[in-house]
Amino acid sequence: AATLGRMDMQVGRDELVAHVAVIAAATPLPLNVDSERCFAETADGIAETVHLLADAGAAGFSIEDWNPATGSIDPIDVATERVRAAATAAAERGLVLTARCENHLHGVDDFDDTMARLRSYLAAGAEVLYAPRIWSAEQIGAVAALGAPVNVLLLPGGPTVEKLAARGARRISVGGSLANIAYGAVAATAQHLLANGTYDADAPFLDGDLKKAAFTTE
Q1: How far is CA 58 from CA 23, 49, 157, in A?
Q2: Which helix (H) or strand (E) holds 62?
Q3: Average pLDDT score over residue span 111-123
């Protein structure tokens, strides 16, 4: 979304699939896709999205239970059936499915509900479990005890990768942080250029090879 100048969840499915195809063609690494709600409200629609992602070169994808149309988390039975539809299609195409519980990103700080949801999503066929913004040893350990790999969101100033791994995390996400840092550097440099008519060769976010690359004339 950021590369298109938009906020999260404002990109259409066709745009996402095209973007996935470009990235998949540019790297030999397995590509996991944040596919939001899979751009559909029906099981058939979810399956169609999964097949499109597979055709574009994705190795895995996620489905989440936040519904921006209602401004709320889906009821657990609705969310579970949506995970089941995604899991069925993922199994057909050999994609890894990550099921996301969005409670803690949207002010629902009910860890018991988060656990009930992740347990239900796992039973519905999810292969990786993810509840952004949980990071304590107790929370990660509880999710890991469900028996699936746990994805954890790495946050600035939060536990390090090493500490999260020790707590049971198997995969780390950074969300939009790297892109936001990059775009922040562009914005700061552009503001300096606008105000001073030159680049800031002493920008604090540029050092070593980054500074050499940014200010080379070759």
Answers
A1: 9, 11, 31
A2: strand 60-64
A3: 98
